[in-house]
Amino acid sequence: MPPKAALSAEIAELIELFKSIGLTQSKAAEAAKSPKSASTLKDIIQKHGLIEKNLEEKQAVLLATLAVQGAKLGDVERGYAVDAILDGRLKSTDQVSAAVKYLEAHPLPIDQSDFDKSCGVGFTITPADIAAQVSSYISSAAVSGWANLGAVIGGLKNSPELRWANPLEVKNAVETAFTERFGTKETAKSKGKEPKKEPASKPAQKSEGSNATASTSRSIFANRGGEERGPRKACAHRSRPISESLEEFEKMRTGHYKPGEAILRMKQDLESGNTMMWDLVAYRVLNAPHHRTHDKWKIYPTYDFTHCLCDSFENITHSLCTTEFIASRESYEWLCDALEVYKPKQSEYGRLNLTGTIMSKRKILQLVKEGHVLDWDDPRLYTLIALRRRGVPPGAIISFVSGLGISTAASNIQTIRFEQAVRQYLEGSAPRLLMVLKPLKVTIENLPEDYLFWLEKPLHPKVPELGTSKVPFTRTIYIDADDFRLEDSPDYFRLAPGKTVGLFQAPHPITCTSYKTDPVTGQVTELICRLENEGPAATKKPKAFIQWVAEHAPSGSPVRVDETRIFHQLFKSDNPAAAVPDFTADINPHSLDIIKGALVEVGFWQLAKKAYNDAKKESKARTEKALKETAEASASSPIETASHENDDTPKATSEQLVGLECIRFQGLRVAYFAVDRESKLGCLNEPDSVEPDRREGDKLVLNRIVSLKEDSGKAA
């Protein structure tokens, strides 16, 4: 076990080092996984003083790529590549890869002009030059017709002259040259199955006239072999001229067809053994408003059409999917290749399931509609918005998943393992406040009415960076009703008549001398205690300590909590899907307890305001950075992208990243809590100079994030 702890500490140190040059948490963790490349990246950072250079994230990613691919380079060669990244000559991972290959193959000294040429530095080429290169290549390769289109484009893209040319310009030049030599693609003769190799840059369109939706679905099913799984047949419109397909597609867009009457399909490969290559639907008619185009367009793209293209446009490097999308990988890559756009890498992983939960959107919708849960963000659910409202920090989720690792096999993990991961994360990060869930009044008889003593206590005993809080100690305090018993026993160490107990972080213990009860119910309503501040009892260490809060109206102590919500498992079993007649039969009727009138120390207000302001500053910085990077990426992209600055396209805002759930703390010996979104805390919106306190109209609602570890003393 000790070696493992040392290794973890070393990796954590590397991650912090890699983050210091601009890598995100996830990319820094990825860079630290391989000891060899991590050592190389560390060496690069230290030798070139990169921490002080304020690098952009893109440059940091390129350096991490260099560490992986250039691990075998000598210090001089690697230093040359680092300088090329820092001075902006190498701007993409593709260029870094080319640079590594060049430096491995060429001895010192480096010919800069040859290096720049091989790595595409400052590359420019005119359309006329591209056309000349295309014409020369076609003549030398003895191309026979349109069937060779894909091979020609691929060969030209890999040629030294066009290695760094715009792929779309190369493709257009090749198609123009083919049209001049062999006529249009529609009139070119095909042999056997050759046409299937053509990259279909304009998917063919399928229209079923006025057929209903069911009829269209049945015809597609029949063409795919039907119930008998017979031979596949092409759609009657598969070979229609592209011009006609475009006309029909425009009719779909403008509302000429009703839903189910016409669809646009991609011309893929009906002979493939993969069903995801059988001319998938790209667009369908749908009369539903869109957040950007409203009701102007009557068509919507399908997931199969948009998935890879959106990933490509957004420069996604790796598209991560669950294993049910393995078959879709072929169509994902096919469409990117057909349109000659950047192709991300799709990788699949096994689904992670938590026992005793429901993740189906259909089933969650049923729970919401039938009133079994409050909403989609009900903290008893395990959607991301539900975990956020419950107060689970994003870092805790990342830590949990990272600890499990990645596998293609489906995983079923007990919920208690997730909660333990959250608990461990909060253990070292959440401030600690005095709190009592069920207040019981205590009057200290040997203190005067106006007695006041201020205690300064740390918010976390092991994390001094979190600071301290000041709490009053007065004649009247409150303890938790569960910390008092009328009948004492040898194995019970908390408060009872005639018994002494310590108060957390208070200077002296107290002894219960008497108590008062309700004449009707017989319940204890008040304890009369003595402060052991004199004699032998003042120096004797108590066997147990209990939490408390003091009553002091001038300072606003204690803070009264309107509602404390304690969430339990929503379902009674680990597999609610197996319940009869359906999963709702397994719902736990006691999954939510609401406690009114809990009390928290007055330090809560300072903590809440600081946590909220810190979260706002962090979210603003993250949003501004993301918007800046997006703008820079759009400006440097060779493809013109639309600007949405002045339309109603949803924009990322810092407010979306901040909620009241960022106010988290541990109630000492109680649990971890977060403020619920239904709360109203007026002081959070006041200037920093104004002392935070309860304002008129405030409402404080707390959600329990997770319980504390089992405490044998508490259980006693």
TrEMBL record:
Reaction(s) the record says it catalyses: tRNA(Gln) + L-glutamine + ATP = L-glutaminyl-tRNA(Gln) + AMP + diphosphate
Protein family according to the UniProt entry: Belongs to the class-I aminoacyl-tRNA synthetase family.
UniProt feature, compositional bias: Basic and acidic residues: 182-200, 618-631
Domain Glutamyl/glutaminyl-tRNA synthetase class Ib catalytic: 228-427
Domain of life: Eukaryota
PANTHER family referenced in this protein's UniProt entry, alphabetically: GLUTAMINE--TRNA LIGASE, GLUTAMINE-TRNA LIGASE
InterPro entries: Gln-tRNA-synth (IPR004514), Gln-tRNA-synth_Ib_RNA-bd_N (IPR007639), Gln-tRNA-synth_Ib_RNA-bd_N_1 (IPR042558), Gln-tRNA-synth_Ib_RNA-bd_N_2 (IPR042559), Gln/Glu-tRNA_Ligase (IPR050132), Glu/Gln-tRNA-synth_Ib_cat-dom (IPR020058), Glu/Gln-tRNA-synth_Ib_codon-bd (IPR020059), Rbsml_bL25/Gln-tRNA_synth_N (IPR020056)
Region (Disordered): 181-240, 618-652
The protein's name in its UniProt record: glutamine--tRNA ligase
NCBIfam families with a match to the protein in the record: glnS (TIGR00440)
Source species: Somion occarium
Domain Glutamyl/glutaminyl-tRNA synthetase class Ib anti-codon binding stretches: 430-531
SUPFAM superfamilies: Nucleotidylyl transferase, Ribosomal protein L25-like
EC number of the protein: 6.1.1.18
Ranges of compositional bias, category Polar residues: 208-220
Keywords assigned: Aminoacyl-tRNA synthetase, ATP-binding, Ligase, Nucleotide-binding, Protein biosynthesis
Pfam families: tRNA-synt_1c, tRNA-synt_1c_C, tRNA-synt_1c_C2, tRNA_synt_1c_R1
All residue ranges annotated as the Glutaminyl-tRNA synthetase class Ib non-specific RNA-binding domain in the record: 13-167
tRNA synthetases class I (E and Q) anti-codon binding domain span: 545-607
